[in-house]
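Allow me, if you will, to draw on your knowledge of protein folds for a short while. I am sending you one protein, given as its amino acid sequence and as whole-number tokens for its backbone shapes. Kindly check, if you would, that the fold set down in the tokens agrees with what the sequence suggests. The record follows directly beneath this note:
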Amino acid sequence: SAEGEGALRAQAARLRTHVSERPELEPADVGFSLATTRSRHRHRAVVLARDRAGFLDGLAALASGGTLPNVVQGTAETRGGTAFVFPGGQGAQWAGLGRELADSSAAFAERLAACAEALEPHVEWSLSEVLRGRPGAPPPERADVAQPVAWAGMVALAELWRSQGVRPTAVMGEGEGEISALHIAGALSLEESAQVVALRGRMAVGSAERRAKDAEERAPDAQIGVSARGADVPYFCTAEGDWLATEGIGARYWCRDDRSPGGLGEAARALVRKGCGFLIELGAHHDSTPDLEKSVDAADSGAVVLRSFGRGEDGLHRFLASLCEAHTRGLSPDWNAVFAGTGASRVDLPTYAFQRQRYWLGDIDA
């Protein structure tokens, strides 16, 4: 990072020369040292590389003012709180991604396993077997399976963000994403939210008209003995477009939301106006990101939307790129947590590339 673009380029050039002349230096050690010992200035960049060659290429591009896919650059000007946004989704979207992240992230895998345990009393299938496509497991797109699978993926993904030091100051969701949001807010335990989403998934079987009628007849809570508590994290209601006290939220509320989901983009605009500068989308794909970005632009607030994943992308790499983008815009993770488990250690690095400019008095008439 640096106070100006020129200094940022000069810093990258100085760093590249330093690393090139010292083949014993590991890129992870360099990154860890920069992230944990240096001041964080306004102009920021991150080189996200899989090997030493990619690291040096990224530094070269940054030094020359060029661009590469593995270089994330931005200005830390965004202000405001951080909202976790949980969109509605489908289980099929999470099948491959959930399996991939479970194999590459301990934080994600542990939370996913906890979700599977919480779901077990309420479903007749195994979350792990569905995600891994085991023989005999129901397809993840089946109506009563899709919502619990998506719920589990979003809950585990929220834990992945939190494990890297990015914690929400607000939450918002739609559909089964709302149940994930209520859990992350602290209004529902993991076990309670699992029970709610399992029931909601079963309600999805059959016609919309019958679901609405049956839900209304059985509400408020005789179909489900769960009601929400007060939230630890402020909860923004998509349907209302405003903050909502969560005490006493129960079946009638969730059934109403099932029949009339709010507009996520419109709610995001209202949330930004309430003071959230960072909106982190926790879906399996970025299908809803364009709507969120459009809404944020319409709010003309300088807020930023960060997507967690995209179609056809390496899951962990995409997540790390989003984490890096958050840092370059002003939302820095806990870098000690990011580098945990890599074996990285601190090493000596070049000093800051000050941009000096001389000022001379002009000729003075006698």
